[in-house]
Amino acid sequence: MFYELTTLSCSLLEQDATSDGARRWVSDSDSTGVLLGSWRTEIGELAQIKVLRKFETMQELQHERERAYMNIKPFHIENAQIQLDFESYTLFPFLPEVEPVASHKFFEFRRYVLKPGGIAPTIAAWKQAMGPAKSYTSHLIANMYALDGPPRITHVWGFSSLEERMALRAHHYAEGLWPPTGGPQQIVKATSTICLSESWSPMR
Questions:
Q1: What is the DSSP string of the chain?
Q2: Domain range enclosing 161
Q3: Mean pLDDT, rounded, for 95-105
Q4: Which of 50, 106, 115, 177 could bond to 172 as cystine, CB 3.0-4.6 Å?
Q5: What percent of the chain has pLDDT above 70?
Q6: Pair (59, 145) in one structural domain
């Protein structure tokens, strides 16, 4: 499977219209791929709508990308000032495929830009840490490495509350179970954004 994370950046007043346009775009009869979720940023850079889809083949993903590139109003965008960003990913090889499960309230998107050559040691570090930190990593929805742009990973987490997130992280850091040994050494830049599901998101 291959994954596409689309981010639409708009003004605060355009969020509802932008979200509705994205909903209609991924529901169009000629749309391909499986919609996993859509979110609105709540903490971090605001006024962003995120859409995560998965595709069985890279050809299918590329076909859907071309549909957007060749359309004069991709994602039914009416305002040319809205920014549209596409990212292509594949999962860390030891993780299960992402399914649109509805069991969370708060979602965290963490993006790490890595050093050149940093993806392989990062994957190895995460694989080693997943079992011992299971009570925390059970909240991991996906960890993906990019197939385009600079070397980077994006991992998505789901929590019932921000308090749950903070308590889990505090405990695992104190016990030395997290972060994965050897992982932080690969990071050049890290960002974190808290999102809430859109009403039409399968994952919520």
A1: -EEEEEEEE--GGGHHHHHHHHHHHHHSTT--SEEEEEEEEEESS-SEEEEEEEESSHHHHHHHHHHHHT-SSGGG---TTSEEEEEEEEE-TTSPPP------SEEEEEEEEE-TT-HHHHHHHHHHHHTTTHHHHTTEEEEEEESSSSSEEEEEEEES-HHHHHHHHHHHHHTT--SPTTSGGGEEEEEEEEEEE-TT-S--
A2: 94-197
A3: 90
A4: 177
A5: 100
A6: no
User: With bands split at pLDDT 50, 70 and 90, how would you rate the model's confidence at 101?
Assistant: confident
- If asked whether residues 29 and 68 sit together in one domain, one would say yes
pLDDT of residue 195: 98
| Residue type present at position 109 | F
Instruction: Round the average pLDDT of the chain to a whole number and report it.
Output: 97
Give the pLDDT of residue 103: 82
Q: How many domains does the chain have?
A: 2
How many residues make up the chain in this entry?
204
Instruction: Look at residue 168 in the predicted model and tell me its pLDDT.
Output: 97
Handedness of CA 145, 109, 84, 75 (dihedral sign): positive
From the number of C-beta atoms within 10 Å of its C-beta (0-12, 13-18, 19+), residue 182 rates as middle
pLDDT tier, 102 (very low <50, low <70, confident <90, very high otherwise):
confident
- The sign of the torsion formed by the CA atoms of 67, 71, 76, 79 equals positive
Q: Please check whether residues 84 and 100 belong to one and the same domain.
A: no
Last residue of one domain, picked from the residues 64, 90, 116: 90
